[in-house]
Amino acid sequence: MIETSDLTKKYGDLYALERLTIKLGRGDVYGFIGPNGAGKTTTMRILATLLNPSWGEASVCGYSIYTGSKDIRRAIGYMPDFFGVYDDMKVTEYLEFFAAAYRIQGPARRKKVEQVLDYVDLGYKRDALVTSLSRGMTQRLGLARVLLHDPQVLLLDEPASGLDPRARIEMRELIKRLRQEAKTIMVSSHILPELADICNKIGIIERGKLIFNGSVDDAIRQVRGNATFTVSVGDRNADAAVKLQTYPEVLLVKADAKTGMLDVRLKDGHEDGSFLPERLIRDGYRLKAFKEKEVNLENVFMEITKGITN
Ligand SMILES: Nc1ncnc2c1ncn2[C@@H]1O[C@H](COP(=O)(O)OP(=O)(O)OP(=O)(O)O)[C@@H](O)[C@H]1O
Question: Residue limits of the ABC transporter domain (predicted)?
Answer without folding.
Answer: 2-232
